Every structure is written in C-alpha cells, then in structure tokens.
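G., the chain you wanted modeled:
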Amino acid sequence: MTSLPPSLAVVPNIPLDEQTLDQLRDEEAYWDARVKDAPGFASAKAADDFRRACRDWIAIREREREA
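Predicted structure as tokens:
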C-alpha cells in the first residue's frame, strides 16, 4: 500500500507556497523516501523534482522567519 504525501494525506492539494515550514519538511521527507524506493529512473526523477521544490520553499520559509 502506498501512502499519500503529507499535503494530500491531511488536506487535499495544498500548494507548496501555502504550506507551513513543518508541513514542507514532512513533504520533503516523504519525497526523499520515494526517491530511494523509486522503481525506475522516471519515478526517481519525478520524486526528486518534488523534493527539490519542497527544499526551495523551505529556504523561502526560513528566510521569512529570519526577516
């Protein structure tokens, strides 16, 4: 059984730009695991793209917190 990423498991389709820092970190951890468990290159690439997007938004949220 596959689990949904945190943003879909709790509230459907929360855009990354609307997630909290904690939500983004959970999302990144989810996609990090999917990259490691991906059955092929295409799946790993897609998961890595989502993971990178989460990391970008984490950096934005951390900068906002510092401001």
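The chain has a mean pLDDT of 83.

Shout if anything looks off.
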